[in-house]
Amino acid sequence: ALVSLAAAPVAGRRLCEAQGLRMKLAALLRDAPADDAELLLVAVKVVSNLHLVNDDGTEAPWPREELNAVRAGLARARELPRTEEVDEASEPLADLASRLLSSLPSGEDSAVAAA
């Protein structure tokens, strides 16, 4: 449900502004057990939905601290070792995390974008 809710621009913005969702996702990506690829994949999907363009075609800025934390979490998720036990979820996890990392602005940009 959170994956879908984050895709709605108004709900995603509210979750980020009022609840600190991006930092919570960054912490989850940083601290989740390496062998729980399914949990990490859900977190990456939520980040992906938060990164979608708003209905009016604009992208709201992400604070630099949040962007850097999310980028670090995505980098960790992308680099986790793949095992037979979690291979079903680890391949899509690495792929989506890589695509998100390449689409997010670098932390050096002053105006960083997403929902």
In short:
This protein is mostly helical and 115 residues long. It has helices spanning 2-7, 9-19, 21-31, 37-50, 64-79, 87-103; strands spanning 61-62, 112-113.
Overview of this protein structure:
This protein is mainly alpha-helical. The protein has one domain (2-113). The protein is 65% helix and 3% strand. It contains six helices and two strands, in the order ααααβααβ. The chain has helices at residues 2-7, 9-19, 21-31, 37-50, 64-79, 87-103, and strands at 61-62, 112-113. A two-stranded antiparallel sheet has the order 1-2. Helix 3 packs parallel to helix 5 and helix 4 (37-50) packs parallel to helix 6 (87-103). It is globular, with a radius of gyration of 14 Å.
Count of alpha and pi helical runs: 6
Number of self-contained structural domains: 1
Strand order, biggest sheet? Answer: 1-2
What is the CA-CA span between the terminal residues?
17 Å
- Beta percentage is under 5%
Task: Give the averaged pLDDT, no decimals.
Answer: 83
Low-pLDDT stretches: 110-115
Gyration radius, rounded: 14 Å
Structural class by sheet pairing and helices:
mainly alpha
Q: Could you give the topology of this structure?
A:
Blueprint (H helix, E strand, L loop, with lengths): L1 H6 L1 H11 L1 H11 L5 H14 L10 E2 L1 H16 L7 H17 L8 E2 L2
Antiparallel strand pairs: 1-2
Helix pairs in contact: 3-4, 3-5, 4-6, 5-6
